[in-house]
Amino acid sequence: MMLHGMAARDTLRVVGETSMVATSGRLVVESVDRIQIIDVTERVRAVVRVVGLRDGIVTAYSMHTTAAVRIQEAEPLLLEDLKEFLERVAPRESYYRHNDFEIRTQHMHPDESPNGSSHCQHLLLGSSETIPVVDGELQLGEWQRVFVIELDGPRPEREVLIQVVGAR
Asked: Each residue of 104-114: pLDDT tens digit?
């Protein structure tokens, strides 16, 4: 289908009679390293399959300020480079007021950890990714994968909200 303003090679897919779905669930991820890049692509695909989404979007959203969700390539040396990059950008050893428990008074818990570097790293990465779904398939490029990036591990439980919206 072509619409006014579209280029000759552009395409537009219009879904006919469908039922709409909007639902959400949670993935629980465990980390074993301080900075760890955890591939959750197949788990996100499984949610799309279980819901029966044909065309729409799926969003993966981290419920934490020290764990991110990003799309990246799953090449092992690149993943090591990314971890080293995050350590260089916000080194654990640097001074962070957030870590100074003698002056910090807000959002303190008995098991509070000095994790200012993790928060700074998260600021660069962000909390979520939204992926289009067409014909029931995540529209990821050849090398793209969905990752939860742990920045303050190890942690026994990290929650990732998965929200699915679209047509069945």
From this structure: 989 988 888 89
